[in-house]
Amino acid sequence: MKDGEFCGKFPSDDLRIGSQLVVYPSQTAIFVRGGSICDTFTSGTYTISTDNIPILGKIVNLPFGKETPFKAEVWFVNHIAKLDLPWGTPQPIQIEDPKYKVIVPVRANGQYGLKVKDATSFLESLIGNMSSFTTEQINAYYKGKIISALNSIIAQQIIEKGVSVLDINTKLMELSSICETLLNDMLDKYGVSIIEFSIMNISIPEDDPSVVKLKKTKDLVARLNIAGRDVYQMERSFDVLEKAAANEGAGGQFAAMGAGLGAGVGIGNAVGSAMGNYMNTNPVVPPPLQTEVTYYLHLNGTPVGGQTISQIKSLVQQGVVNADTMVWKAGMQQWAKISDIAELSGIVNAQTPPPLN
Questions:
Q1: Which of 68-72, 94-98, 116-120, 274-278 has the lowest mean pLDDT?
Q2: What is the SS3 assignment for 324?
Q3: Spans of all domains in the chain
């Protein structure tokens, strides 16, 4: 058997009782007849007889004495590990970022080692599933199973860890260890084991629209965390004022922009007050802080902020929002269903009388 091969067959299947069988260290020899395994031998030198292969007494007639010929295959299985085998996801894995709730395409690649730990299970899995056993075919056979399993394992682990796809490369060693354990559980029935499995890189296409959206969402969340929601809304209103002041006839434009901004982030009153000051040529002053509580809604995979209770009620009536819609506001530790928020549950659980006949 050549170096680096997982298994190889003795070139002749015309054997004789009394022949010697030599099995080298780190090998197992397996007798196969008619697709069934007769016996196995570990390292050492053996003389083939019905004593050490009892089943031969039933297979072979013995009118010719100890040199009776018989037909059987002898396979040698190598237990030395084959290392540095590359792997990579052929197609992107679609994953919803667990932190920012945006679906993005993810690719991963790395390398692993493969070793036969149970020669009988290994050969049985090949005999039952493959017509020929070149090293390249065996590699491809197990690699296909490994990559197929990795698609779901990596996606599941990213979601369970709750780490954004943008930051997941900081967890590669931990993910590699988890994947190795789960892959070995899967491959145990094939008689092989994974060693030194590693994820070298998890990447996302920088120019993909969903990735651009994810980065913008991350930037927005960072600004809100640093400056606070009220300060962020004030900055947005100042941006509108500056743009309006830079344009001729900005009064009408500013009114439209203020209305749009108020609808988008729930600060219509603040912008309206600032616009009145602008139109009266008085010095621009900061708008009053928003006193009404606003919420983020998780709609179509995207957090939508600035929603007041009255706006949420309207969305419920339109069928856009229901009891299972996820919601968040400042001060909450995590997202929750609308039906679990005391001040919102009445909106989705409200009972209305039936129509009159």
A1: 274-278
A2: coil
A3: 7-78, 82-203, 292-352
